[in-house]
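Lecture 7 notes: from sequence to structure.
We start with the chain below.
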Amino acid sequence: MKNLYLSLVCVCIVFATQAQEYFESLPENPGPNVCFAKCVVPDEYREEVVRVMTKPEYTVLELIPAEYETKNEEIKVKPASIKYSNVPAVYRTVYDTVWTLEPYNKLSILPASFSDEFESVEIKPKTGAWVAGEKDPDCPSIDPADCRIFHYVENEAVTRDVPIKKVLQQSRTSSEKIDGKYRLVERQVEVSPATTKQEEIPAKKRSIKRSVLVKDETTKERTIVAEYTEVMRKVLVKKGGMTAWRQVPCDIPERGIILPIHYALGSAALTSDSRRIIDTHILSLMLKDENTTVEIGSHTDSRGSAESNMRLSERRAKSVVDYLMSKGISQDRLIAVGYGETKLLNDCADGADCSEAAHQENRRTEFKVF
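Predicted structure tokens for the same chain:
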């Protein structure tokens, strides 16, 4: 078979290692079934460590807190005073009898009483006279007149019984005790009079815990040393360019595997679904067979300028390469190619009226495994 030379698009972006070999011109006598692609020779860099001061040396002031001594102090919150209180009078209860109607003696008059009698009324008084009687035999006188005995003779008085009434009992009164009416009246009798009592109220004190300043707050100066970080930087050793050819497999297919890896308009970011599809179909294959090399060809839709779409497709290809490298795939097994809008899958070229779904079909990444 004659030598076959595949010329990839001029913007082929190849992530190379030192082990890859580039040729300034095509070899004169290549072996059979050897294919080359004209690629951009990457710039050559060397890595060096740069010590960068991320934070300069500076001084800070540290606050030294004030020092206090705790003391207990009694504070008079209320002075002593005298309390006067009234001691009420003491009374006892007595009951007085109050006559509402005093008792009295009711008198009854008893008329006089009489008896029927007779009173003898002398209608002729009693009379008497001396009457000469016989001669006293023992009389010595011869004169008969001398020795005569005279008797006094009384004539009874003549009386007449006159009926009369005599008072047996004079008019009098009889007394009857009539009870009065009364009621008991309760009254208070003072036993001891009201007085005033004096009571001394002591002062009230409160114990307060007080912090007494011993040493005032101050500051002290402290030096903070500078901070450095080591940065690995690449120093350009040799400028690359489109001046070399790289040997590639001859069986690179015209069309790659089209997986449903699509991008938002103007974006090169991989979605979580896209990463999952890459893991399933590409990463697993490359991990299983270490001799597998994959060309990652990214595309855009026709909207925007051709130049900006080319740069966008390159960023999309690089996003996939970076993701696979983060999973442990070596750079020399990955070829990233940005095709821009040069290989549309449909008729949605500039000026065509296409749906968003049709434009999205062109925003894709294809994988050529060889």
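Points to note: The radius of gyration is 83 Å. DSSP finds three helices and 24 strands in the chain.
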